[in-house]
Amino acid sequence: MRPGRPYPAGPDAPHTPLRPMWCCRADGQPWPCGSARLLLRAEYDHDLTGLSIYLAGLMYEAMRDLYHLNPHDGPEPKALFDRFLAWARPRRQQCADPGRSVD
C-alpha cells in the first residue's frame, strides 16, 4: 500500500508550501513562488495588512523549519524577509503635484 499525497501532483498541484523545505508543491521554487504571490495578492486584494500578518506568521514557521534542517548554514534573515514580506508591501501611489501644471 502506498501513502496518498495530501495534495494533487502535476499540473493541477496548488502553489502551496511543501514543508519543511518551504518549496512550492507545484513548481519546486522557493515558496512563495511567483504564482503563489499573484494568487495571495488577488486573495488579499482589499486586506494587505492581513496579508502581511499571514505572511509574517508563515515566515516565522519557515525560519523554525529551515534553521532546524540546516542550523549552521540557514538562510539570512534579510533573505527570508524579502522572500516572505517585502513583495507584499502596499505600493505607494504617485500623486501629481497639485501646484504643478500638466503639459
Give me the secondary-structure topology.
Layout: E1 17-18, E2 23-24, H1 34-43, H2 48-69, H3 77-84
Antiparallel strand pairs: 1-2
Helix pairs in contact: 2-3
What can you see in these coordinates?
- The longest helix has 22 residues, at 48-69.
- The chain is 39% helix and 4% strand.
- It has a domain at 32-88.
- The chain is built from three helices and two strands; from the N terminus they run E-E-H-H-H.
- Helix 2 runs antiparallel to helix 3.
- Strands 1-2 form a two-stranded antiparallel sheet.
- With 103 residues, it is mainly α.
- It is globular and about 55 Å long.
- The model is unreliable at 1-8 (pLDDT under 50).
- The protein has helices spanning 34-43, 48-69, 77-84; strands at residues 17-18, 23-24.
Assign an overall shape.
globular
Biggest sheet descriptor: 2 strands, antiparallel
Poorly predicted runs are: 1-8
**Which class do the helix and strand fractions yield?**
mainly alpha
Protein name: Flavin reductase
